[in-house]
Amino acid sequence: MTYDFDLFVIGAGSGGVRAARFAAGYGARVAVAESRYLGGTCVNVGCVPKKLLVYGAHFADDFEQAQGFGWSLGEARFDWSTLISNKNREIERLNGIYRNLLVGSGVTLLEGHARIVDEHSVELGGKRYSAKHILIATGGWPQIPEIPGHEYAIGSNEVFFLEQLPKRVLVVGGGYIAVEFASIFNGMGAKTSLLYRGELFLRGFDGAVRRHLQEELSKRGVDLQFNSDIARIDKQADGSLLATLKDGRVLAADCIFYATGRRPMLDNLGLENTHVQLDERGFIKVDEQYQTSTPSILAIGDVIGRVQLTPVALAEGMAVARRLFKPEQYRKVDYQMIPTAVFSLPNIGTVGLSEEQAKEEGYNVQIFESRFRPMKLTMTESQERTLMKLVVDAATDRVLGCHMVGPDAGEIVQGLAVALKAGATKQLFDETIGVHPTAAEEFVTMRTPVSS
Predict the structure, then answer these.
(1) 436 is catalytic
(2) Domain 150-260's class?
(3) Which residues contact 387 (CB under 8 A, 6 or more apart)?
(4) What is the reported pLDDT for 142?
(5) Which class in CATH covers the domain with range 340-444?
């Protein structure tokens, strides 16, 4: 049978664009359908604009610390609307780059909502297209619990377009988005509370990392309220909000921001016209080759709920393009030793196993840990401390995990991820000469385990 396209991609986020571009480069006839914005969550309402806001928030620290180095500054003033308007301009520039990447690769870009009609057909704008393979890369969508008054809260889509900086903010959630935005709002001068229903945020991260960030955020004035959850939200006549907590307390705020998880974006996708199955969490079920229970339909990225990170979606998109159209270059995505960063203030960088995970997996571990005040802060009033930690397998001396809380943690951990991927031992770390004077050299100068 002859099809209109060899590959029809639904969703022009990171994974979908990567798969489309490379498939077209391998000679396939490719179409991409996108109903919102090119670049997906990451470029538009995720990692890119978020990090721009983190940079903006960090200037408060820079101005304060400059005095210790002899700089006399006038009164610093922050204008939220300038930051947001400059951010919007940068995102528009990136949208254009994504458009050029697709069109320049020979991909047919269809702007509109695509709906699957059957295992080889997609409908968009009243027109039907046939495809040998259909790739779902529609990503995720923020979830706000449907409590009374939930319509007065915002999620991670709306937060990037607030017209003004709220004076009082309640951030609800315990994941990386919650701690990042608590840092952003706090750094920009808003009175910020972070509410989390559990004992301590960042579940799944190393325990020392979680406790260290708790200490540092508290030092910075973020009001951390654990074992707390909102029962209802009421809007007042002046536009302010009252959050009634499940324990009966009432908190006033100008903005309530929920970062309580994301669901797969499957709305009106037409999956009922296929045999595609969902897992118990509602994500699309796929095999090792990203194939659904309908063989011609594949899925990658946040919609399959594996590791919800942009670089992982990119790797999955590349794997699909290679397997289908350049099989001699195909290799599976390795989900081990994936480095990640949390752009809280201070940053977190981590790769490999946490101490808790290593012990659960049966390793006899040695723990190397260092906490210190960074050199840059020694001539300032700041009492921020950096944490660095290595988790080592005592039996083989292999480094199982690297963890850091401190300035530029993500930048530092990226290089360490290569070492861990290569199977580096603690001896190799010890024999590596450090770059002096840097914080990063601490990773190769920790000699004495703090525990085994």
Answers:
(1) yes
(2) alpha beta
(3) 208, 209, 212, 369, 370, 371, 403, 404, 405, 406
(4) 96
(5) alpha beta
Residue 69 per-residue DSSP state: G
What stretches in the chain show pLDDT beneath 50? none
**pLDDT (0 to 100) of residue 390:** 98
354/400 Cα distance (integer angstroms):
8
Gyration radius (Cα) of the chain, Å: 24
Cβ contacts of residue 317 below 8 Å, gap of 6+? 14, 15, 16, 17, 18, 19, 20, 22, 137, 300, 301
pLDDT at 451: 76
- What pLDDT score was predicted for residue 448? 94
Give me the pLDDT at residue 139, please. 97
**In the chain, how long is the greatest CA-to-CA distance?**
74
Give the residue range(s) of CATH 3.50.50.60 domains in the chain: 5-140+263-329, 150-260
166 in Cβ contact with 239 (< 8 Å): no
Q: Which helix (H) or strand (E) holds 425?
A: none
Q: Which residue, chain included where needed, has tokens 């290595």?
A: 390
Task: Please state, in angstroms and rounded to a whole number, the distance separating the CA atoms of residues 2 and 381.
Answer: 70
> pTM for this one?
0.96
Write down the catalytic residue from 133, 150, 212, 436: 436
Please tell me the predicted confidence (pLDDT) of residue 452: 66
Lookup: tokens for 312: 């992982």
The CATH number given to 5-140+263-329 is 3.50.50.60
pLDDT of 75 reads 87
- What is the overall mean pLDDT for the chain? 97
